[in-house]
Amino acid sequence: GGLHEAGAAAFAEKCTAPECVLHGMALAFKGRKNANAPAGWERVSAAYGSSSDAVIRDDVQSLNVAFGDRRTLDELRSLVTDTALSANDRNQALRSLLLSPPADFGATLVRLLADRAVAVEAIRGLVHYKDADIPSKILEASRSFGPVERVEMIQTLASRPAFARELLQAIRDKRVAPSELTAIHARQIASFENET
After folding, report:
1. How far is CA 29 from CA 32, 38, 60, 174, in A?
2. Contact status, residue 142 vs residue 175, Cβ threshold 8 Å
3. Can you give the pTM of this predicted structure?
4. pLDDT digits over 11-38, tens only?
5. Comparing C-alpha atoms, which of 91, 94, 100, 153 is closest to residue 128?
6. φ, ψ of residue 164 in degrees (nearest 5)
7. How far apart are the first and last CA of the chain?
8. What is the pLDDT of residues 131-153, one digit of tens each?
9. How many whole angstroms separate alpha carbon 195 and alpha carbon 173?
10. Cα–Cα distance for residue pair 195/191, rounded to 1 Å
């Protein structure tokens, strides 16, 4: 509809600020899955995807993710698991991929819990998945977590009723200290009372 027409018009020859349009489109499509790419998107993606400006490259990448571009998604998956890359690059790739979380990526995130370079983002990413074994996998991995990972663990486990049940059991079993929960977490879990 309107976004597609605006995008196509913006990249016509008379466009004086295509980078601004790209950024606006990236914001508009953030978190959308399998959106339809505007006409001519492949050309725009090729032209701006290798820009020397990191913001423009990131905008193109996030739009490719929103448009379900298989090549981009496969590239991001590869970057996330490439331990030869810097932690920063891997985390950026993971954040980009999780803008539209792939349905089949939960198992990879669980494996990444043991990878200190990306564990925090992996924990955050697991909030998007409902697999019943996620809470127990997070709690198993928590033995090696530092303070930052543990904060994210609590946040993720307090985010869903089924996850919160496992968190409460872990507290009863003394695998998680009650002091790790904040008042916000306690209220969140209490709001699940009818469901947990």
Report:
1. 5, 12, 11, 43
2. yes
3. 0.79
4. 544 456 878 888 888 889 887 878 899 8
5. 100
6. -65, -35
7. 42
8. 999 999 999 999 999 999 999 99
9. 21
10. 9
